[in-house]
Write a structure and sequence with these properties.
The complex is a heterodimer of chains A (about 260) and B (about 260). Chain A contains nine helices and ten strands. With about 260 residues, chain A is an alpha/beta fold. Chain A has a six-stranded mixed sheet, sandwiched between helices. A four-stranded antiparallel sheet of chain A has the order 2-1-4-5, covered by helices on one side. In chain A, strand 7, helix 5 and strand 8 form a beta-alpha-beta unit. The longest helix of chain A is centred in the C-terminal third of the chain and has 18 residues. With about 260 residues, chain B is mainly alpha-helical. The longest helix of chain B is centred in the N-terminal third of the chain and has 38 residues. The radius of gyration of chain B is 23 Å and the shape is flat. The chains are: A alpha/beta (about 260), B mainly alpha (about 260). At the A-B interface, strand 6 and helix 2 of A face helix 7 and helix 8 of B. Chain A: One of its GO terms (molecular function) is ATP binding.
C-alpha cells in the first residue's frame, strides 16, 4: 500500500526578503515532509529562517519560489485549518479569556450556545476555568499562552504551527506546558510543527528534530528521536535522550553547521 | 504576597491619596489667602476673592452666567462632535488604505500647523458673523487633533493581533471591526482629549474676537468697562468647565481601555 500523503510538504522553498542589493535570502531550498500525526520540532540559531518557514506554512508570509502544501492544498493565505501559536501569545487584550477562545468559533459561524460549550471545553482543557471571564492582563505568561493554545485548538485545526510558544516562559512553566502539549497530542494525534531555540525542548517533544543553519537559512540535519511516548521523566534523563540531545546540540552550535 | 501585606499596602495607598488631596486643599486655601491678603493691603489693583464671589452670585442670580456658559458649551459641543465624528472615519480610512492616506495626509499635515484661530478672519468673511464661523473653527480644532490620533492608532496596531485574527480565519472587514477598532481606541481617546482641550481654547478665543454671547464675549465686554470681577468669574468658569470636560473624557478613556496593561508596556 502506498504511503499516506504527508500532512505538510515543503518543496524547494526559497524566501528572499527585499529586492536588489538589499535583498536577503532568509530560506534557501528548504524541503521537508511532515507526516500526519507527527511532531516535528525545528531548531537553529537566530536568523536560520525557522520562523519564516513556519510562517510560510501558516500563510502569513508568501514564499518566493517553491511549493508549500498543507493537507494536499497549496498554501495561499492564512486559514483556520492551520492553528498558529505565537511566542508573544497574541491574545486580544480587550477580550476576556472566553471571548478570545470564542473568537475563531464565531468566525466559523458556530451558534452562541455551541460556541460557549466548545470554548468552555477548551478552557477547561488548559486549566483556565477559574479565569474564563478575566482579561488577559490578569493572567501570567504561562496562563496567557495556555489561553492562546485553547484558542488555537477551539477551531479544531488540522495542524498546529507553534512559533517558540514557550520561549518567554520560566523553566518550570515551560516543562509543564510541554507535558500538557504531549498529553493533548497523545489523545488527538494532531500534526504539530514546533519552532524552538531550546534543544531539550526540541528533543523532548519530537518524533523528528529538524536542525537549520543560518546565512542562508537552510535545513542542515534531520535527527530522528527514537524514544517512546509518553515521554516520562525517566526518558528525559535517559542516556538515549542525552545522546540525541548532544547530537542536536552539535548540529545547532558546531561551527561546521554555520559555514555556508 | 500575604494577605496582611496586601492590606498594609492598600492602607498606604489610601493614606497616600488622602495626603495628596489634603495637600491640594491646603495649597488652594493658601493661594486664595495670599490673593486676599495682597488685595487687602492694597499691593495690587486686582479684585479681592470676596468681590469675585459676590459678582459670581450676581451673575448666577440674574442668569447671565448660565446664558454665557450655555452659549460657549453649545459651540464647543457641536463643533467637537462634528469634528470627531468626521475625524474618526477619515483617520481609519487613512490608516487602512494607502491611497486615502496619500491623498489626505498632506492637507492634514498642512492645516495642522495653522492655529485654528488664524482661520477666523477667513471664516467670518466667507461664512458671516453668526454661529457658523465659530463652530467651524472649533470643528477644525477638534477634527485635526482627532484625525491624526486615529490615523496613528490604526498604523500602530500590533501586527501580531492582526496575524492572530487572520490565522483564525478573519476577513479584512472582521480584522478592521474586531481588531483595528479596539486596538486603536486608546490612541483615539487621547486624540479626543487633546481635541476637546483645543476646542475649548478655541471657543473662548473666538468669542473674544467675534461673538455676541459666551464666556469669551463676557470677558471682552467686561474689559471695556474695566469690570475685573466679571473677568475673574469668567476665567474661573472657563477653568472649571475645561477641567470637568477633560475629566469626563478621561473617565471614558479609563473605562473603554480598562483592558490595557498599564505600566508594563
Amino acid at each position: 500500500m502506498a504511503q499516506p500523503e504527508p500532512k505538510i510538504i515543503f518543496r524547494h522553498v526559497n524566501k528572499i526578503f527585499g529586492e536588489g542589493p538589499g535583498a536577503f535570502q532568509a530560506v534557501k531550498d528548504f524541503s521537508l515532509d511532515i507526516a500526519e500525526g507527527e511532531i516535528v520540532t525545528v531548531v537553529g540559531p537566530s536568523g536560520c529562517g525557522k520562523s519564516t518557514v513556519m510562517n510560510i506554512a501558516a500563510g502569513l508570509i508568501p514564499l518566493t519560489d517553491g511549493e508549500c502544501l498543507v493537507h494536499g492544498r497549496e498554501v495561499k493565505g492564512p486559514g483556520p485549518d492551520r492553528g498558529v501559536i505565537f511566542q508573544q501569545y497574541a491574545l486580544f487584550p480587550w477580550l476576556t479569556v472566553r471571548k478570545n477562545v470564542e473568537f475563531g468559533l464565531k468566525l466559523k459561524g458556530i451558534k452562541p450556545e455551541e460556541r460557549r460549550t466548545l470554548a468552555e471545553h477548551y478552557i477547561e482543557m488548559v486549566g483556565l476555568s477559574d479565569f474564563a471571564d478575566s482579561l488577559p492582563k490578569m493572567l501570567s505568561g504561562g496562563m496567557k499562552q495556555r489561553c492562546a493554545i485553547a484558542r488555537a485548538y477551539a477551531v479544531d485545526p488540522e495542524v498546529l504551527l507553534m512559533d517558540e510558544p514557550f520561549g518567554a516562559l520560566d523553566a518550570l512553566t515551560r516543562v509543564r506546558l510541554q507535558e500538557q502539549l504531549l498529553e493533548t497530542w497523545s489523545q488527538d494525534k494532531r500534526t504539530i510543527m514546533f519552532i524552538t531555540h531550546d534543544v531539550d525542548e526540541a528533543v523532548y517533544l519530537a518524533n523528528r528534530v529538524i536542525v537549520m543553519a543560518a546565512r542562508p537559512g537552510r535545513l542542515s540535519k534531520i535527527i530522528k528521536v527514537n524514544l517512546p511516548y509518553p515521554r516520562t521523566d525517566e526518558i528525559r534523563l535517559s542516556e538515549e535522550f542525552i545522546r540525541i540531545r548532544n547530537e542536536v546540540w552539535r548540529g545547532v552550535y558546531s561551527r561546521g553547521a554555520d559555514a555556508a | 504576597m500575604t494577605k496582611t501585606d496586601k492590606n498594609k499596602r492598600s492602607i498606604f495607598v489610601r493614606m497616600d491619596k488622602l495626603a495628596t488631596i489634603g495637600l491640594g486643599i491646603i495649597s488652594f486655601i493658601l493661594g486664595i489667602g495670599l490673593w486676599w491678603f495682597a488685595t487687602y493691603v492694597g499691593s495690587t489693583n486686582l479684585p479681592s476673592p470676596i468681590d469675585v464671589v459676590i459678582r459670581c452670585f450676581e451673575l448666577a442670580g440674574n442668569g447671565q452666567l448660565f446664558v454665557d456658559i450655555f452659549a460657549s458649551m453649545r459651540r464647543v459641543l457641536i463643533g467637537f462632535l462634528l469634528g470627531v465624528s468626521i475625524a474618526v472615519p477619515i483617520g481609519f480610512l487613512m490608516g487602512w488604505y494607502r491611497l486615502a492616506r496619500g491623498l489626505i495626509e498632506p492637507w492634514i499635515q498642512f492645516f495642522r500647523v495653522i492655529p485654528p484661530l488664524a482661520i477666523i478672519p477667513l471664516a467670518i468673511v466667507t461664512m458671516g458673523i453668526d454661529e457658523t464661523p465659530k463652530i467651524f473653527v472649533i470643528f477644525l480644532a477638534a477634527f485635526l487633533s482627532s484625525v491624526v490620533a486615529t490615523f496613528q492608532g490604526v498604523v500602530n496596531v500590533d501586527r501580531t493581533y492582526i496575524n492572530a485574527a487572520r490565522v483564525l480565519g478573519a476577513s479584512d472587514w472582521v480584522i478592521f471591526r474586531s481588531v483595528v477598532v479596539p486596538a486603536s481606541t486608546p490612541f483615539i481617546l487621547v486624540g479626543f482629549r487633546i481635541g476637546l482641550g483645543s476646542a475649548w481654547a478655541t471657543v473662548v478665543a473666538a468669542e473674544l474676537i467675534a461673538a455676541q454671547s459666551g464666556l469669551g464675549f463676557r470677558m471682552q465686554q467686561a474689559q471695556l468697562y474695566y469690570d475685573l470681577p466679571t473677568i475673574f468669574v469668567s476665567l474661573v468658569a472657563i477653568g472649571i468647565l475645561g477641567l470637568i470636560m477633560d475629566r469626563l473624557v478621561g473617565r471614558a478613556d479609563e473605562y473603554l481601555t480598562r483592558w490595557q496593561e498599564k505600566g508594563t508596556a
